[in-house]
Amino acid sequence: MSLPYKYQTLPIEKVFRDPVHNYIHVNHQVILDLINSKEVQRLRRIKQLGTSSFTFHGAEHSRFSHSLGVYEITRRICNIFQQNYSSEKLGEEGWDDSQRLVALCAALLHDVGHGPYSHTFERIFHTNHEEITVAIITSPETEVYQILNSVEAGFPEKVASVITKTYPNPQVVQMISSQIDADRMDYLLRDAYFTGTKYGTFDLTRILRMIRPCKSGIVFAINGMHAVEDYIVSRYQMYVQVYFHRSSRGMEVVLEHLLNRAHELFPKETAMLQNTAQLLIPFFKENFSLQDYLRLDDGVLNTAFNLWSETSDLILSDLSQRFLNRKPLKSCRFVPEVQDNLISQMQQIVEKAGFNPTYYTAINSSYDLPYDFYQPKLEKHRTQIELQQNDGTLVELSQVSPLVAALAGQEQGDHRFYFPKEMIEERLQNNYDLFGETYQSFASHIHNGELI
Amino acid sequence: MSLPYKYQTLPIEKVFRDPVHNYIHVNHQVILDLINSKEVQRLRRIKQLGTSSFTFHGAEHSRFSHSLGVYEITRRICNIFQQNYSSEKLGEEGWDDSQRLVALCAALLHDVGHGPYSHTFERIFHTNHEEITVAIITSPETEVYQILNSVEAGFPEKVASVITKTYPNPQVVQMISSQIDADRMDYLLRDAYFTGTKYGTFDLTRILRMIRPCKSGIVFAINGMHAVEDYIVSRYQMYVQVYFHRSSRGMEVVLEHLLNRAHELFPKETAMLQNTAQLLIPFFKENFSLQDYLRLDDGVLNTAFNLWSETSDLILSDLSQRFLNRKPLKSCRFVPEVQDNLISQMQQIVEKAGFNPTYYTAINSSYDLPYDFYQPKLEKHRTQIELQQNDGTLVELSQVSPLVAALAGQEQGDHRFYFPKEMIEERLQNNYDLFGETYQSFASHIHNGELI
Amino acid sequence: MSLPYKYQTLPIEKVFRDPVHNYIHVNHQVILDLINSKEVQRLRRIKQLGTSSFTFHGAEHSRFSHSLGVYEITRRICNIFQQNYSSEKLGEEGWDDSQRLVALCAALLHDVGHGPYSHTFERIFHTNHEEITVAIITSPETEVYQILNSVEAGFPEKVASVITKTYPNPQVVQMISSQIDADRMDYLLRDAYFTGTKYGTFDLTRILRMIRPCKSGIVFAINGMHAVEDYIVSRYQMYVQVYFHRSSRGMEVVLEHLLNRAHELFPKETAMLQNTAQLLIPFFKENFSLQDYLRLDDGVLNTAFNLWSETSDLILSDLSQRFLNRKPLKSCRFVPEVQDNLISQMQQIVEKAGFNPTYYTAINSSYDLPYDFYQPKLEKHRTQIELQQNDGTLVELSQVSPLVAALAGQEQGDHRFYFPKEMIEERLQNNYDLFGETYQSFASHIHNGELI
Amino acid sequence: MSLPYKYQTLPIEKVFRDPVHNYIHVNHQVILDLINSKEVQRLRRIKQLGTSSFTFHGAEHSRFSHSLGVYEITRRICNIFQQNYSSEKLGEEGWDDSQRLVALCAALLHDVGHGPYSHTFERIFHTNHEEITVAIITSPETEVYQILNSVEAGFPEKVASVITKTYPNPQVVQMISSQIDADRMDYLLRDAYFTGTKYGTFDLTRILRMIRPCKSGIVFAINGMHAVEDYIVSRYQMYVQVYFHRSSRGMEVVLEHLLNRAHELFPKETAMLQNTAQLLIPFFKENFSLQDYLRLDDGVLNTAFNLWSETSDLILSDLSQRFLNRKPLKSCRFVPEVQDNLISQMQQIVEKAGFNPTYYTAINSSYDLPYDFYQPKLEKHRTQIELQQNDGTLVELSQVSPLVAALAGQEQGDHRFYFPKEMIEERLQNNYDLFGETYQSFASHIHNGELI
């Protein structure tokens, strides 16, 4: 007679070799089954960093490997909590290990609703990866749901509620989602490893030694303050050096225009799009099912671009080629509001040079990117990082770390105006014709990377 | 007035951040233009290790990053040769730096003809990535050709001849292709980094300190013998631990059967395949152009599998799902010839259980994989590794290293029989029906991973 | 006929395997001879971090390995300068490679005057390692002088003037001594490596890509700003986490009291000290020659402590044992001036418990430690770090980096009161006698590591 | 009321930052007390690799850090054994966790009897570090004994018997001492880290995943075979590249001659040696106590050499200077027996050149070094490495690994003849005098590093 599914462990621990955490350890049958589900396997076909791999060629890792990593960090936190701070010893300040399975499932599944190039795709087709994550977990048609529901009735909804932060146990919620959670810790380390930058590297082992459960969630021992500081600085460095990189954003605006163009063409070019992008049709119609969504991946989009690159619509085919062959729009910094008029002028020059400014220029602000920096003073603030002093009282990190206060007090990022590379090519400016003049006048407005 | 294209260097050296070599350094306009060509950019969409990433989830790196790495190692070798062993000093024993550009181009382009899941694809559709590499380099229609031809007339052919090993300068040829060339050195280090195994790691800096040009090609200083040994051992470890991994091969056989099935269905299912795999039609017809080939990538194949997974042919749809959702065939080792009859019996049992053995069993020998181990005694032997003694005489590596002799003298690898996982699932064996018996009889033939 | 000594290079480059820089490369005969000189070899017997190895057991590296490291970074800077920014191309803004040898010699020798546990030793015996460095370089009796003088007459003085910062070429001076020089870059990386902390790690390769000579010295390209920021943060982390560690300082105060005691005992215990510490006599007399100084090393001091640990003076023997057997004084933070009276009271309690407060208590401020943090606004400020913008103008780092501004604006470190561990041992406080009360009253003044 | 000492754990786990294992974790009060004992602290003053740090300048780590490392690996093995293979589950095939404390103590103390430059010192003064280890553990006068004896009566003897391999539990014995024990695993990793070579690096985590207790000791799962192979190859590489390095051995022979000379001088130079090397007198007399031995460390010897370098005996002072200032004897390989006559001739030439051959030449065979390579076929063989197959049967490693068989079957190492560097200095050979001829005749017998 076998144990209930929920308690089934593997006869021999299964491991996955991982370059960041050395090994991912799996002991629960439930977790192994989730990893093998088709909704999770699909994450292998979606890059973690989208267009960033065009700038950092090593960063070709998938959302699958990140999901395993978040699971693994969560597992290690559970182990530490259970060993040192169990609720058996500490009551409600401590960790109740019966929460482990829900935490591990939520960690593994927290990104399961991501699609290809999510950030851009969502803006154009009005999908929402967080809602889809919840849908995948709670819809009876998915393998993920079947597995979770075999644990016990209502379990899928429990896991989903961790992700929507409505789960009653704040320790579980904050493990997966807070200013210093398993998600952020994994992606910083992983993105640093695969880009080959050193900036995202912080001392995970030391952070994990300093993490503590408490009644209100998760805190850090005060003598780990410098380790937490180091994590915050790593995050800052990854933002300014990797996530906000101007070339990756130059590819992102190409992608956005390209998808927009296809979307707009749909009513009159239905047949062509049907033939070249069968799996995207439900999204052009803005009427898609969960199954439609689950068939998308990076390859599906790239294959559409591949086919579109030979289509008769010149804008669609040109943008498709620019994307596939990595021809990002170029950019300069500008000051919003103050320079809005100038932007209009620049767009007119671009138009004069023969480029439709709707598809060949763009405004892009790194502030819009989906990375939240640590700003405890924001009105609708996110979870704070709190340190636990020797006598048990808590203090917010930026109160004791001038370094963090300095980083938290300022906006990071920039506003950029994007345009075709041709506008600033020396070769073209030297033409002794009208176009030459056009290019020259454009270039004269850019100095030291800034609009003037 | 500007320099001839061939001599144009970038005003500021351009670098690409690389996790393996820290930075890839580009100084020549020609190299930058080649990297930006669409044929090279296409390599971003083809994984370096094919189905191995199903086993090692970190190994999602592309042939693009490997190509940059081979270029970089070649560049470093050229620098060392020019600094210490120039032909100006050493005559024909030395390095003639006017060979640098042809070496760099050949290094960067040596894999440009690879397609998606090359090894398997080639067997089924009778393509050949080496011939296609040469075709890309020497066909006037490609961007790569245009760039190379701007260097000077005949230059594309020169570069191609390095790859076909007919180029007259053996130093250049052996940099790119020999037992210890820039290609192998990069892929061992890179595959080790991305899989997260340590085995492939050897001391590149030390190897580069010991490398020497000579009249007949490239040799190593005798006092670097242990560093070369270490490289050979790393190679051995990567083969047995990574490249020959039974699960990756279990995915490969699924892929092979899947493509075979589609190929065979083509005559009668032409319309369906036209609708779902437009870009593969020329290959089903075995009549493809270079442009047809250049439109292929991993995403194109995966998208076809995605669409096939809902097609009416049950074998095609099932195999497509198995591939996308990572359901490898399982395997056991067997002894060819001796156990051939037993294999036939096993296939019959598989058939009894309801699986068509043509598509659900396979024989796979790691000896067929495209990795050559170091075997200097083979009749049609590959380049040897030679060490230069203090008095200038050469000695073949396995003559002085018992460690290498031990590795070189034996065949590495194994022969495996693949079958559906269902055949050995405990759950199914315990059914009290005819099928239960079938499964039991199958399982009884496998002991300790071997066929008995 | 051979070249003048100054131009002699080694027939084959000599390398030293180094865990931090991989290899130290030596090409000049002069440099190899300096490394082999007895004054430089002596640095093998002096630990780089003094008492810090009592806290970080891996940090047992010597000043010898640091000296090689500083040399190597300087060599790499010279290579980059010569390749990209030579004065042949850039005039006085550029690098004049005839300065290379003086720079390399100064780099290798910049710490040659250090003695055992320098910081403490100097305070007690009024030696000065910088003056002694100059003396070693410019005294005809040393091997170092002999070698330098063979380069050309006056060369020793040139090298010394780099170290005293009176050398006319500011590029050479700032390579060896500025806010971001080869010295600091090596010790941060090296100390991080050997302590096993990750904090000191910054991206040396990237910093070296961004470094530029200019007329006034050395600056950094503006687009390397974040790499320089990262270096500053690493430095901050190393100070607060390693260099200012309270336990290392607890060993340092033991050492200081111990040497002080011996010094004070000298007049009446001359014979005993003569027998046990022959090589220290000139220092007790405060009348020492350069040769006397050059015979000192960590082992000489430790051997004296070894012998003193069995001497009849109880304080000297007890402190010697505490030092050898790693029994640091314990400590708490306090507020100078405000709590000076309280300190006196505490010292009285210590005395009541039987410890002479002169030798068993101490005040130690990390501000006195020989590490300068980056504070460009200090009146007598140190060299600033300047960034070069695209148009060539310079800007001071903290003007553009809020992160650095935050770190530069504040004092780092703390003031600590040190006392015997016995004062806070639970075991002793629980004695039901007068001593028990004494210990209790002492302990009651310490809360959360602070004096109250 | 407190627990018996044996069961006392620290209120908060104490950690030591370690560059090799990240953290050393201490939970038992007994272990912390042992670390703080003066006999263990003394190991801080003894280098792990003796004269090897003259060749690899980073390798300045002490026997203290190695001892912590061996303890830590043992602790990890105990954790894995207790978690997965406890005797509660597996009976006598499993691990009995009541053995943990004796294993940890033995691991920490296994090298506590080492003295300065042990290998050489022992040969001259007939000390034996293994016997002294046992003496330290079992002599009531030591702090180590006091601590162990507080655990329970007879406990010191238990710990000692693990080291002498007479302890009845073979699992405990083999953890500390076998072909793949915590000792070897730590020193390979640690020596690789500090020398900066990569050769000693193997995959510790994977090895620890594969290690298993069994009735007869410790074995490895068969599917970890390649990880064990990798460890064996790392060991081989460290031997040939680091431990057998000819320059380190060139310093060792200087040291040996130097100590021999002092020893021989003792009868007639007693007063001088008394004044300069007080702590060595008991050893010159070959009548020393345990306390005499415990006062020795590297600094004591170096300080004696320092004082001897100005003594009137020319051989003693010259050899002392050669040692302190790193002037190794040079060497060439030779064939014992076959070339013994030639060696005699060479020694005569050395004598002609003015060097006493007893003190200025030497024969050194790496086979005499205290490193045992894996040779399962030796008559008096050491513990074998055994692999456990799926059905529980054991197979000796070299039976299944041709790589290991190749390494195990051959003798590694070489025989060298050492002589003064002056004998082969070009400068001296070019003298047009009798000495010139002498040097020339010497040099003519050496070709390609071999005696001819």
What fraction of the residues of chain A are assigned to beta strands by DSSP?
5-15%
CATH class of the largest domain in chain A: Mainly Alpha
Describe the oligomeric state of these chains in a short phrase. homotetramer
Percent helix of chain A: 40-55%
Using only CA atoms, what is the Rg of chain A?
A: 24 Å
Shape field of chain A? globular
Largest sheet of chain A: 4 strands, mixed
From the 3D structure, determine the CATH topology of the largest domain in chain A: Hypothetical protein af1432
Count of DSSP-assigned helices of chain A: 25
Give the spatial strand order of the biggest sheet of chain A: 3-4-7-8
| Low-pLDDT segments of chain A | none
CATH architecture of the largest domain in chain A: Orthogonal Bundle
| Largest protein-protein interface | A-B, 47 and 47 residues
Q: Can you tell me the CATH superfamily of the largest domain in chain A?
A: Hypothetical protein af1432
